[in-house]
Amino acid sequence: MLFKEVHLQDIRAGKITLAFRKWQKASVKKGSLLNTSVGLLEIDSIETVNESDITDKDAKQAGFTDKKQLLKSFSHKHTGEIFKISIHYYSEDPRIKLREQTDYSDQQFDAVTEKLARLDQYSKNGHWTNKVLLSIRDHPNLPAAGLANLTGFEKEWLKLNIRKLKNMGLTISHTIGYEVSPLGNNYLNKRNDSKNKK
């Protein structure tokens, strides 16, 4: 569930408390937490509504000037039911605190190594995590298309899987491109040290 940046800022400020989406089926449920650029958002409730049930007040609570503008925001490609979603700002993104870690215990190192091994094991592209992490470290702020050319992986697949590294606190996404986080650099350094000791 995606939001425009201006709407995210207003959700954080408490100015926006509703969202409307047209879906074939709900992609979120009550109690879900959404990771966004402003932090975590929580879904308070979700219900289907008829177009006639939506009011101008609802539209304003969703960040639009009136009902007409809200309805225009639905893409012609989107079919299905209209969902009315109550939402509020929940907390800072926990990944930010995680990725800034500079202390790295052996237990943390082993846990991350195990998670990366699982990502490699279940990937249709085989062992990709090391190649992608090193490519991002050596080419910071390179867009996904550039990383795709560099690594040989398909761009959309790469973007989806870099998000998995971000969720582990290993990378940081920018408006253009990526970089390895302090936690990611610590992991790569520790892994390099352990290889050199063998």
UniProtKB/TrEMBL annotation:
This is ASCH domain-containing protein. It comes from the Bacteria. It comes from Chryseobacterium camelliae.
